[in-house]
What does this fold into?
Amino acid sequence: MKKTMSAIILVVLVLFLVKNCAVWKYEATVNGHNAPITVRVSMSGGRIRNVEVTKDSETTGVGKKAIEMIPRRIVEEQSLSVDAVTGASITSRAILAAAEQAMQGGKVRTERFKNNIKTQQAEDESLTADVIVVGGGGAGLAAAVSAEQHGARVLVLEKLDILGGSTNVSEGALNAVDPKRQKPQGIEDSVEKFIDQTWHGGHEKGDMELIRYLCGNSMESVEWLEDLGAVFKDTVSTATGALFPRSHYPVTPSGNSYVRVFEDYASSHEALTVRTGVEVRSLTVEKGRITGVSGVKKDGGTVTASAPCVILATGGFGANKEMLKKYNTGVWAHVDLTALGCTNMVSCATGAGIEMAAAIGADVTGMSDIQ
It folds into this structure.
């Protein structure tokens, strides 16, 4: 009798251990931003042990960032209601939906994981720097790195959870007169030719002083990026919309390669601080000078930052329908631009920085020159 009871207890114990220690894996596929995404969820003991995206075609620097961040958040918070990655919300929601479907396919009750919502206590912050850069896209990060290289303490404030803005989804072409690459291809070029084509390509409306500066210094920008770690192809070509073969392309496709170089630089230089998830909403003006900015974090807390220099690098307004209606008085006046799509990162190109500056009396120019 004792042996029988012992055997029964042993069987029950083994079944308990199998149920609670064995790792069960479930998988599901849903539509992502670019194509279907497949997610595998590993569980044991009633807990989510691992979430892995096993197949995707999402964009580097955008959807790929969500693939990095969302599975980790699900495991850490044991939740299917984690915050989406701002700027990659479609991919974020796809991963969460696939994870839920995978678990349901394995007969896991997902209600408690959906109801497990982490709340954050809002905290207000006051920050200081020598230079504040509003916007962590290609232009903002370039400005931030340059300022740090010149000895400044720099603070970058980006409203999304990811850096790079529309640069992430650009081709990454950078035009410059470059004899080292052009001559072996039989291309005869000059800075004056570059200036002339830029002037005529802009319908003779450009600021010639700025055009000369742009064309005369663009090769230095290529070399500066190379010094930071960017790698360009050995040949040049003609980018879409360009007039001459002087377009430099990174070996790793797309403008995201520049963003990764800037991110690597920031991570290894303490004087350059990057804060994501901070939406700057106003500029601080004291005695006729801009002395800082104020904004809001995702947790609802405020950020007040002060600096003697503020750089606005907040992008354009291609995704702001009201601004498109207001400023579309140029060559596209006969077209309803609001009915067209936008190839910018739509969560970036809202014109917020332009409106922010105009609110304190800044002038605007070239607003009808919409691409």
Observations:
- Confidence is low (pLDDT under 50) at residues 12-18.
